[in-house]
Amino acid sequence: MEIVCLDLEGVLVPEIWIAFAEASGIPELKRTTRDEPDYDKLMRWRLGILKEHGLGLKEIQQTIAGIDPLPGAKEFLDELRSLTQVMILSDTFTQFASPLMKKLGWPTLLCNSLVVAPDGEITDFKMRIAHSKLSTVKALQSIGYETIAAGDSFNDLEMIEAGKAGFLFRSTEAIKAAHPELPAFEEYGDLLKAIKNVIGA
């Protein structure tokens, strides 16, 4: 029995931090896991910038409210979910994700959470588990699932490489060049076809 594990940002929805960087006029916040492999380092840097500019959860949520899934993402996800089990594994946060999950038809999402002060300042973040994507894939494998994964960033590579099959989707040229062994796709139709080939659909 197979289960498909998908990254969220950059795969199904736009990058939240890039959207917020544009909305807030703070270009430094465009840095993502496509650029920085160390997620802890990236998030602590982001929180420092937010504090410096006096920005909190409310401002980010206002930006998220205007974000729609990438064109074709919901249709891709709907068809994939009609064929096999699908789980979204993301390093985003519950406080960010709910409006996006609603627009995607409430797929299953495993992610992290923010620590928010009464005044709305984001003071810290809590990771669900270390190496959350790889740990989740291994847990699924331990209960009898064969995993198929797709993502675009450094933090997706572990889950992509650990399963029955793995794919890069709309990744960077640098990541694709560093991992020529991983099939890389730019269109949902091509990714869906590759997954269908693996599951025999």
CATH class of the largest domain: Alpha Beta
Structural class: alpha/beta
Q: What is the CATH architecture assignment of the largest domain?
A: 3-Layer(aba) Sandwich
Give me the CATH fold name of the largest domain.
Rossmann fold
Q: What would CATH call the homologous superfamily of the largest domain?
A: HAD superfamily/HAD-like
Determine the fraction of residues in helical runs and give it as a percent range. Answer: 40-55%
Radius of gyration: 17 Å
Count of helical stretches: 9
Average the pLDDT over all residues and give the rounded result: 94
* Integer count of domains: 2
Q: What kind of sheet is the major sheet?
A: 7 strands, mixed
Strand and helix order: EHHHHEHEEHEHEHEH
| Order of strands, widest sheet | 4-3-2-1-5-6-7
Total strands? 7
Question: What is the 3D shape?
Answer: globular
Low-confidence stretches: none
**Termini separation:** 12 Å
Strand content: 15-25%
Describe the protein in words:
The protein has 201 residues and is an alpha/beta fold. It folds into 2 domains: 2-13 and 68-118 and 126-199, Rossmann fold (3-Layer(aba) Sandwich); 16-64, Alpha-Beta Complex (thrh gene product, domain 2), CATH 3.90.1470.10. The protein has helices spanning 16-24, 39-53, 57-64, 73-83, 94-103, 132-142, 157-162, 173-178, 188-199; strands spanning 2-6, 85-93, 109-116, 122-126, 146-151, 165-169, 184-185. A 7-stranded mixed sheet has the order 4-3-2-1-5-6-7, with helices on both faces. Strand 2 (85-93), helix 5 and strand 3 (109-116) form a beta-alpha-beta unit. Helix 1 crosses helix 3 (57-64), helix 3 (57-64) packs parallel to helix 5 and helix 4 packs parallel to helix 9 (188-199). The longest helix has 15 residues, at 39-53. The chain is globular and about 50 Å long. The two termini are 12 Å apart.
